[in-house]
Specification:
The complex is a heterodimer. By secondary structure, chain A is of the alpha+beta class. Chain A has one domain (23-131, 144-189). Chain A is 16% helix and 47% strand. Chain A has helices at residues 2-13, 44-55, 191-197, and strands spanning 16-18, 27-34, 42-43, 60-67, 82-93, 97-108, 110-112, 118-121, 124-134, 143-146, 150-154, 157-165, 173-178, 181-187. In chain A, the strands form two sheets. In chain A, strands 1, 2, 3, 4, 5, 6, 7, 8, 12, 13 and 14 form an eleven-stranded antiparallel beta sheet that branches. A three-stranded antiparallel beta sheet of chain A has the order 10-9-11, with no helix packed on it. By secondary structure, chain B is an alpha+beta fold. Chain B has one domain. In chain B, 15% of the residues lie in helices and 50% in strands. Chain B is built from three helices and twelve strands, in the order H-E-E-H-E-E-E-E-E-E-E-E-E-E-H. Chain B has helices at 2-11, 40-45, 169-180; strands at 24-32, 37-39, 53-60, 64-74, 79-90, 92-94, 99-102, 106-114, 122-131, 134-142, 146-151, 157-162. The chains are: A alpha+beta, B alpha+beta. Strand 9 (124-134) of chain A pairs antiparallel with strand 5 (79-90) of chain B, so a sheet runs across the interface.
Chain lengths: 198, 181
Amino acid sequence: MNLLVLASVTAALAGKPAEMPEALSGKWRVTTVKLPVSDGHEDFATWMHREAMASGDECYTIERVYDFGKAPGAEGPHRPGLVSITETITCTKGGLGTYHASATLELEATWSGPKKSTLALPGAEMELNLTRLRLPRGVRAPAQWSAPEMVWAVKASELKLRAEQAWRRAPMQLFGQVGNREFGFEPVPSEEKKRRKR
Amino acid sequence: MLITTLFLLACGPDPNAPPPRPDGEFRVVAVHTSEATIPGPDAILGGYPGCIWGQQSFTFTKDRVATEISVLCPSDKENALACQVNVRGEAFWDAEGGRFVVPNRAKGTGAFVSHNEEEPPKDLAGCEVVLAKGEYPVARIYNGQWKWEVRTPDGSVHRLVAAEARPDFVGAMLAQQEEKK
């Protein structure tokens, strides 16, 4: 009996397919990833940390955020013409301490498919560097510490989005398929919403 | 003699011929807008108040155009932080028109935030660069040495010289100190 109750509660809490939102805006954080070899979704940050450890990188990704821009002024369907994707890494390095580096690529977006749920982005790549210099004392050259170069590349790709909602008033969840990987997204509360909660 | 002269005139370089495709990294030494000509570093520093040195460069290859911005900004009395961001996108060379065509716009923004223990997070540095969509006509000028010009889609003309070295932040800091003396 208990097992039956538990199963029905779990089923009720699990996401149900929902219609893609008419208007897509705001920031959405990648929270989960599902690889072709895994049964279900796993935490995105944990997966990225594990990948970095496996390849011996000194920095690792802690966050990836898609920004679909400001909410449109008028009601009705809306898909942004520009989409930004921000990758944030954390590093600890002598002379710089612990720091987060964020690289944002803002690209032109093309939407297609039913409910305009497929986002196509052109490929682009960026490199980011930080160097700290300390003024020389006397006639010596300045001391310098360089951060490991951060490369953030977005391949020309299509992201097929779908929506899920556990119940009517539950927050909408998005899932996006790129190739054979699926990512789960959750909305990042806007600064205004954060202030209201306080 | 006459035949040689006629041959040279007929076969010499055509002044109206499109320039060859630039290849490699080029530093921006000046930017001409409809209103003024601005030295390259000043064109960058206008967008970074408080910073003491800046540089922009373009890198051209067969199928890519990249642009990079480097800035050096004092963070306190003893330290300065250099932020460098480079964005590159697909492009193709139109040999007849003597221009690169960049089919997609890309903007790269970088930000660094310190997260040391027992201290609140602190912004360290930030910089951004845009690779605009459109045509980049180039011209090659000889005035003692080869110089290049590229017109970016916003209409401004960037005068370029081949970049012989990567941005030298140490040199920039020492030069600033010399100026102060």
